[in-house]
Amino acid sequence: MTTLTDRLWYGRGRPLWPLYPLAWLYRMVAESRRRKAWQAKDEVLPAPVVVVGNITAGGTGKSPLTARLVSLLKEHGWRPVILSRGYGGRSGHYPLQVDQTTRAEVAGDEPVMLALETGCPVVVDPERKRGALWALEQQLGDILICDDGLQHYRLPRDIELAVFDAERGIGNGAGIPVGPLREPLDRLSGVDFVVTNGGMLEEIEHPAQFPMTLEPAALRNLSSGETAPLDSLRDKPVHAIAGIGNPRRFFATLESLGARVSATAFADHHKFRASDLPVDDNAWLLMTAKDAVKCREFAPDNTWVLSVKAQLPEAFIDAFLARVRECSGSLTIHESVRT
Fold first, then answer.
1. Which alpha helices (DSSP H) does 54-159 contain, by range?
2. Which residues have CB under 8 Å from 282's CB, separation 6+?
3. How far apart are CA 29 and CA 23, in angstroms?
4. pLDDT digits 0-9 by tens, 45-57
5. Residue 338 belongs to some domain of the structure
6. Count: domains in the chain
7. Sign, Cα dihedral of 30, 200, 322, 120
8. Is the CB of residue 235 less than 8 Å from the CB of residue 283?
9. 214 DSSP β-pair partners
10. Which of 62, 124, 175, 191 is 20 to 30 A from 163 in CA distance terms?
11. Residue 47 in domain
């Protein structure tokens, strides 16, 4: 389903061109904030900091990539901690450590999903530097992964990854509000890796651009926890809902698994209510893991969750781990060199 934003930002033209003065102002303010933050930055955290983000508005696959990096680091002996702003949540105190009982209304949907999917500590704080320092004081881990923090310049960082949706790319190439760019393309010259979800992007020139694919990983009943093989969806009628950045990708994944999909898209981070969920005893209700954490208390028993896993080329994995080792070499927090 194509949204108004898709048509205005990700089409060939720039129908919002009369708003160019606002786009110029947005860029000037963003660049000023970036310069001030970097000039004031005088602290290096005693653990490597990896920032996963994007320069386009909307979903690109940052959270699945964050989950994959966490898994990869754990496989190589690290103890990662995820940092998040907690978009969409509101807590009475920060920093907030997320656990399996934390509600999405408090912490935000993505932090709760990442805590459930990865099993590693997740710390939410709008001031991510404060959250990082607290996580290290509590000895929660020895490497920090910031989910969606490319423009949060007050947080010191060692490695930056910019993520793009290859289907959407850079859209019409204009800045917000005329187009989807949070920052100009030359911002990419300062990032370590560009990861493109769904294929490579010719309009992006970067020496370390790597493709990523999101592959179906598990099918789980939200109420009972029962799992089912992915081929259970073959020729199965399903009602699919998605409140993510690119709902079409989720619906296309279900169709590729053979499901007969009736799809309903919502805005990214939509606050679901019971009335949003169709009830049909003859069809499954399918949703993403991100949406599921907001529907746990009222979803019908026939609700199933499709989890995805980010697949990355070996060349990226080798380069990323080498960069982590390089960054950690000058830090004293580690007792030994990881291999």
1. 62-75, 104-107, 109-118, 128-137
2. 237
3. 10
4. 899 999 999 999 8
5. no
6. 2
7. positive
8. no
9. 310
10. 124
11. yes
Position 334 scores a pLDDT of 44
Q: Do 195 and 152 sit in the same domain of this protein?
A: yes
Q: How many angstroms separate the CA atoms of 149 and 34, rounded?
A: 13
Pairwise CA distance, residues 153 & 149, whole Å: 8
Q: What is the pLDDT of residue 254?
A: 97
Return phi, psi of residue 309, to 5°. -130, 135
State whether 133 and 90 are in the same domain. Answer: yes
Q: Return d(Cα 114, Cα 110) in angstroms, integer.
A: 6
The answer to whether 262 and 248 are in contact (CB under 8 A) is no
Buried b (16+ CB within 10 A) or exposed e, 46-71: ebbbbbbbbbbbbbbbbbbbbbbbbb
Residue whose pair of structure tokens reads 């310049």 in the numeric block: 153
Same domain (yes/no): 157, 281:
no
User: Which range marks the domain in which residue 61 is found?
Assistant: 4-29+43-212+312-328
Contact 299, 239 (CB under 8 A): no
Q: Are residues 152 and 242 in the same domain?
A: no
Which residues is 318 bridged to in the sheet?
A: none
Q: Please give the Cα distance from 138 to 57 (Å, whole number).
A: 33
* pLDDT surpasses 70 at 237: yes
Contact 122/141 with Cβ under 8 angstroms?
Answer: no
pLDDT band at 176 (very low <50, low <70, confident <90, very high): very high
Does residue 224 fall inside a structural domain? Answer: yes
Distance, CA of 220 to CA of 136 (rounded, Å): 34
**CA–CA distance, 166 with 202 (Å, rounded to integer):** 10
Distance, in Å, from the CA atom of 300 to the CA atom of 284, rounded to the nearest integer, reads: 10
What predicted TM-score, i.e. pTM, was given to this entire model? Answer: 0.91
Distance CA 133, CA 45 (A): 8
Whether residue 18 is predicted with pLDDT greater than 50 in this model: the reply is yes
- Residue 334 within a domain: no
Cβ atoms 9, 179 nearer than 8 A: yes
Say whether both 228 and 199 belong to one domain. Answer: no
The CA–CA distances, whole Å, from 268 to 58, 59, 241 equal: 8, 8, 12
Amino acid at 322: A
